[in-house]
Amino acid sequence: MTVFRVDPATGLEEAEAARRLRSEGPNELRAAAPVPMWRKIVAQFQDPLIYLLLAAIAISLGAWVIEGAIGVPIDAVVIAAVVLLNAMLGFVQENAAENAVAALHR
After folding, report:
1. Which residues of the chain have pLDDT under 50?
2. Is the distance from CB of 50 to CB of 90 less than 8 angstroms?
3. Are 64 and 73 in contact (CB under 8 A)?
4. CA 90, CA 22: separation in Å to the nearest integer?
């Protein structure tokens, strides 16, 4: 361990540890800048499969308008509900993971 100038059996000497603390700073991870909530929500929709489902909603709505159907476009509503539920679950899971990492950091 001559590269790090430390004896594996005894560790760093007090003076060397103090010098490294002054020159390198404390041994801790730097916190990243917090991501705004709106970016976390938008990130839930940035997936090719979500794009495909959004295209399916548009096609379903287009077909519903062209047919002149009466009532609610059930297919589009169901697909939109699935996309929104997926985004909500992803957002909740991401927040839970961030909270767990923050708790570990503390």
Report:
1. 1
2. no
3. yes
4. 42
Residue 61 placed within a domain = yes
27: in domain:
no
Q: Is the pTM of this model over 0.85?
A: no
CA distance 16 to 5: 9
Per the listing, tokens 């940035």 go with 46
Print the domain residue range for 90. Answer: 33-105
- CB of 87 within 8 A of CB of 44? yes
Whether the Cβ atoms of residue 54 and residue 83 lie closer than 8 Å to each other = yes
**Do 54 and 90 meet the contact criterion of CB atoms below 8 Å apart?**
no
Q: Give the CA distances from residue 4 to residues 10, 18, 25, 28, 54, in Å, rounded to whole numbers and listed in that order.
A: 13, 15, 16, 18, 55
Cβ contacts of residue 44 below 8 Å, gap of 6+? Answer: 50, 86, 87, 90, 91
Longest alpha-carbon distance in the chain:
82
| In a domain? residue 101 | yes
pLDDT tens readout for residues 79-90: 999 999 999 999
